[in-house]
């Protein structure tokens, strides 16, 4: 046990190396920009003040969101997803997978679970001994099940999931702003030092290297930031982008998508004034999520469905529901409703004497 414990401690220590590297680069960039560029190189007082104010605003927001991403503990499944003591003993005694699944099905009958494994089984973590909630996955690096796990990021030495995904997006956004601002304001002095328009000094090395580092980070962060913005718009995690979540009726990559605006609100919340601040405003509890499934799960007492289903449109027409033989039909009601209204309009133009009535089907 002792060698294993020592090895585990060494792994945890080495995992902080990327974070320490980023911290050192940020500290050096602060010194290079504030001291070497703004104080020793820039002569205009007005330019110094403007650069320093904007730089410190972006620096504070960047460091704030970065620290929140690092030190926010990943959210874990609650106790209700753990097996009772008798069920756990029975599960461990059983050797047949079919019998184990029956135990898990009984335990999960009162839980809001709508996703399954690829084989259609209840998702259970043998390591944590817990039934996995929807969108929950086990992180081997953190050795725990993480709610709405997106990925494990070595640059923050933490799992990015339900509890800190907003912080991670803001960290990418403010780090991009930070690097873009440095690259844009340093560019003219980079050119002047490169063309020897300014005398050689200690600031020359810092300014030249600062521009290269800022530009390099801009390119890498931009691609990652745009990818995660796309994920937020689709309401998918990185894991779900590579492997679609499996519902009882089969895999569905858009199963958790509620539309662009509602997908944004799932991560950033309803109040836009808090969107740019690294404070927790994400919707839900990380255990249950609204889905786009039209029909309720027949094996669940109450499904978590889209709250605005089957509402009447402005003309009083009820939007058509999905076919009963396909319970995996998604919320494309608006599309069908628009097609029906277009068809009715064409019929009206052909004959003004034809009266079209739309009756609600019960």
Automatic annotation (TrEMBL):
Keywords: Acyltransferase, Membrane, Transferase, Transmembrane, Transmembrane helix
UniProt feature, compositional bias: Polar residues: 321-330
Cellular compartments annotated: Membrane
Domain of life from the UniProt record: Eukaryota
Signal sequence, start to end: none
EC number from the UniProt entry: 2.3.1.225
Pfam family, one: DHHC
Classification via InterPro entries: Palmitoyltrfase_DHHC, PFA4/ZDH16/20/ERF2-like
Enzyme class (EC, first level): transferase
Transmembrane segments: 14-43, 49-67, 167-191, 203-227
Reactions listed under catalytic activity: L-cysteinyl-[protein] + hexadecanoyl-CoA = S-hexadecanoyl-L-cysteinyl-[protein] + CoA
Keyword Transmembrane listed: yes
Domain characteristics, as noted in the entry: The DHHC domain is required for palmitoyltransferase activity.
Protein name: Palmitoyltransferase
Gene symbol of the encoding locus: zdhhc20b
């Amino acid at each position: 046990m002792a060698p294993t414990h020592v090895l585990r401690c060494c792994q945890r220590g080495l995992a902080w190396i990327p974070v320490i590297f980023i911290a050192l680069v940020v500290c050096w960039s602060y010194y290079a920009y504030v001291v070497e560029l703004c104080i020793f190189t820039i002569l205009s007082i007005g330019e110094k003040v403007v650069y320093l104010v904007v730089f410190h605003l972006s620096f504070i927001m960047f460091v704030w969101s970065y620290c929140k991403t690092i030190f926010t503990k990943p959210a874990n499944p609650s106790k209700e997803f753990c097996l009772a003591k008798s069920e756990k003993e029975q599960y461990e005694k059983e050797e047949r997978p079919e019998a184990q699944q029956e135990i898990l099905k009984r335990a999960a009958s009162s839980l809001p679970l709508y996703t399954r494994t690829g084989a259609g089984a209840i998702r259970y973590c043998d390591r944590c001994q817990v039934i996995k909630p929807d969108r929950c996955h086990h992180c081997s690096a953190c050795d725990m099940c993480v709610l709405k796990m997106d990925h494990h990021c070595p640059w923050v030495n933490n799992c990015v999931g339900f509890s800190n995904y907003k912080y991670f997006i803001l960290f990418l956004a403010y780090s991009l702003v930070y690097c873009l601002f440095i690259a844009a304001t340093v560019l003219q002095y980079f050119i002047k030092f490169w063309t020897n328009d300014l005398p050689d000094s200690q600031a020359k090395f810092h300014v030249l290297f600062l521009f290269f580092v800022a530009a390099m980070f801009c390119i890498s962060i931009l691609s990652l930031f745009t990818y995660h913005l796309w994920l937020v718009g689709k309401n998918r995690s990185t894991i779900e982008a590579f492997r679609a979540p499996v519902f009882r009726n089969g895999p569905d990559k858009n199963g958790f998508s509620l539309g662009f605006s509602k997908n944004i609100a799932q991560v950033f919340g309803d109040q836009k004034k808090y969107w740019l601040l690294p404070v927790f405003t994400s919707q839900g509890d990380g255990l249950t999520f609204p889905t786009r499934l039209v029909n309720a799960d027949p094996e669940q007492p109450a499904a978590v469905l889209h709250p605005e289903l089957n509402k009447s449109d402005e003309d009083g027409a009820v939007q058509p529901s999905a076919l009963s033989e396909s319970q995996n039909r998604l919320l494309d009601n608006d599309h069908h409703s628009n097609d029906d209204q277009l068809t009715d309009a064409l019929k009206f133009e052909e004959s003004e004497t034809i009266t079209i009535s739309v009756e609600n089907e019960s």
